[in-house]
């Protein structure tokens, strides 16, 4: 049975850390699910690592629906959370509800949106429709990147207090968990201890209730950005380049394909054909 939002919340109560990885396509999602991650987050980071945009801003609902659909068809055990892309929920609450519904229809079990106290009414409205919401505070790629660039959040007392209030406002609004991106580890610890729902950190230290990373980063598949908070477990880009150049050499040298890779006519048919032509 696949995990539910309730299972994820209970992991915090049971003191069990929550593993989250981004996923965007069927094949990789199936492997991450098989490896046992608790949550597959179909992040709008797809815009960068899959679609090659400079940032997440150009990502559309239609693109997110395709990614969410692929991941949801692959999952057996994990909870699938779909990211609401830039401008799919900020303009109005009715947009937010309609677009959350679209991601659920595409296969997500829950949605994620960026923003703290300012998003309280939007979150409550989505939750009231029955759609579980994950919050996202700290560095917010859809907005902080525009105003401040990539910058650690919560390093001063004022900034820390704002973040703690944001987390409490989101909890009050009904989110089932909150992603904390690039928040100083001291503030992440305070937030994690002050809310009853799980915090999922990315670059926010070990005291969060769970961790999330971009799957391309842990596999070493995306070479454009290497944030300090990433732990790379494989260097797949090197292996891919090696494998592809071996393939190219084999094609050029006539070493591929061989008999084990091709198909033959039925016995005796070739000889008959040759007589005819
Ligand atoms: O889009 C994304 O990948 C995210 C993160 C929290 C990793 O929002």
List keywords for this structure.
alpha/beta; 12 helices
Low-confidence stretches: none
State the distance separating the first and last CA atoms: 60 Å
Mean pLDDT rating: 97
Instruction: Give the overall shape.
Output: elongated
| Main sheet summary | 8 strands, parallel, barrel
Rg over CA atoms, rounded to whole Å, is 23 Å
What is the ordering of alpha helices and beta strands? HEHEHHEHEHEHHEHEEHHH
The total of beta strands comes to 8
Tell me the number of helical segments per DSSP (H or I, 4 or more residues long).
12
Ligand kinds: 3-methyl-2-oxobutanoic acid
**Percent of residues in beta strands:** 5-15%
The amount of helix comes to 40-55%
Q: Output the structural class.
A: alpha/beta
Strand order of the largest sheet: 1-2-3-4-5-6-7-8
Task: Write a concise synopsis of the structure shown.
The chain is built from twelve helices and eight strands. The protein is of the alpha/beta class and 277 residues long.
Descriptive overview:
This protein has 277 residues and is of the alpha/beta class. The protein is built from twelve helices and eight strands. An eight-stranded parallel β-barrel has the order 1-2-3-4-5-6-7-8, surrounded by seven helices. Helix 5 (93-106) crosses helix 6. It is elongated and about 85 Å long. The N and C termini lie far apart (60 Å). 3-methyl-2-oxobutanoic acid binds at residues 22, 43-45, 83, 136, 179, 181, 202, 212, 214.
Blueprint of the fold:
Blueprint: H1 5-13, E1 18-22, H2 26-35, E2 39-42, H3 46-49, H4 61-74, E3 79-83, H5 93-106, E4 110-112, H6 120-128, E5 133-138, H7 144-148, H8 157-173, E6 177-181, H9 185-194, E7 199-202, E8 210-213, H10 215-219, H11 236-252, H12 269-276
Parallel strand pairs: 1-2, 1-8, 2-3, 3-4, 4-5, 5-6, 6-7, 7-8
Helix pairs in contact: 2-4, 4-5, 5-6, 6-8, 8-9
The chain binds 3-methyl-2-oxobutanoic acid.
């Amino acid at each position: 049975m696949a995990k539910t939002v309730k299972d994820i919340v209970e992991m915090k109560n049971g003191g069990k850390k929550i593993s989250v990885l981004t996923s965007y396509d069927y094949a990789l999602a199936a492997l991450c699910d098989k490896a046992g991650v608790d949550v597959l987050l179909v992040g709008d980071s797809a815009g960068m690592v899959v679609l090659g945009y400079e940032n997440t801003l150009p990502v559309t609902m239609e693109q997110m629906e395709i990614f969410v659909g692929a991941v949801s068809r692959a999952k057996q055990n994990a909870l699938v959370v779909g990211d609401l892309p830039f401008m799919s929920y900020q303009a109005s609450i009715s947009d937010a509800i309609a677009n959350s519904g679209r991601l659920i229809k595409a296969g997500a079990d829950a949605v994620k949106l960026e923003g703290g106290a300012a998003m309280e009414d939007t979150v409550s409205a989505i939750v009231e429709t029955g759609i579980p919401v994950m919050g996202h505070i700290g560095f917010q790629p859809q907005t902080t990147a525009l105003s401040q660039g990539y910058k650690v959040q919560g390093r001063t007392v004022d900034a820390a207090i704002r973040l703690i209030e944001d987390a409490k406002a989101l909890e009050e609004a009904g989110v089932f968990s909150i992603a904390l991106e690039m928040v100083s580890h001291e503030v992440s610890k305070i937030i994690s201890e002050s809310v009853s729902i799980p915090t999922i950190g990315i670059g926010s230290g070990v005291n969060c209730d769970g961790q999330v990373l971009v799957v391309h980063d842990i596999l070493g598949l995306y070479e454009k950005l290497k944030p300090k908070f990433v732990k790379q477990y494989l260097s797949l880009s090197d292996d891919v380049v090696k494998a592809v150049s071996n393939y190219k050499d084999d094609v050029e040298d006539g070493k591929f394909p061989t008999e084990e890779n091709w198909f033959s006519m039925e016995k005796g048919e070739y000889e008959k054909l040759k007589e005819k032509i």
